Amino acid sequence: MIALRGRTVIFLVLFFLVGAGTPSAEHYELSVPYDVHVPLLLKLVSKSRTLPERLGAEVRIAVCGRRSLGALREIADGKQLLGKRIRVIDATRARAGAEIIYVGPDAEVSVEEVRALAQATGAVTVTGVGELVEQGIALGVKLSPSHRPKILVNLAAARQQGIDLPAAVLAIAEVVER
Questions:
Q1: pTM (two decimals)
Q2: Beta strands in the chain (DSSP E)
């Protein structure tokens, strides 16, 4: 379970997620629809050998992006991940912290800000925008040339966020070394 560190983290959340005048991911489009990539990302996150020890009574997913927030609430809110109830929350109001930060194509925050927040809170970063994985988000999905969803793993970011995926998962993923 991720513990907050008082006003410092609340400030970080407000500073990073309200948009501190930095570039955002809003110009990206999803190549794989939410109803396909979100369950795939949740399955991928569940394969991490280190995730279960981080979880409390529920799995909180903080979502960056209003349109993305609605989509994730519809698809994942109330479902189960590793036997824990999923609660989807607005990242700009995530005062209780989150175990997963989802960066949508409509996010008004930079990858650097999301990575800093993930490092400060111990969260895992995920996205449905392949380009954002190349920029530093840990896990994502893109459309392959054969028009099938392809798992992306930014190995450096995943290791920094404490994600330990089995070799079998890495073998079927496209590994991004950044």
A1: 0.85
A2: 58-64, 80-81, 84-90, 100-103, 124-127, 139-143, 149-154, 174-176
Give the number of other CB atoms < 10 A from CB of residue 171: 8
* 78: its two tokens: 């109330």
What angle in degrees, to the nearest 10, is found between the helix axes of 111-121 and 7-17?
160
pLDDT digits (tens, 9 = 90+) for 82-112: 999 999 999 987 666 899 999 999 998 899 9
Cβ contact 138:128 at 8 Å: no
Q: 88 CB contacts (<8 Å, ≥6 apart)?
A: 61, 63, 69, 72, 73, 76, 77
C-alpha dihedral (111, 11, 89, 150), degrees to nearest 10: 10
**Shortest CA distance to 122 belongs to which of 64, 161, 159?**
161
Of the candidates 111, 92, 123, 69, the one whose C-alpha atom is nearest the C-alpha of residue 14 is 92
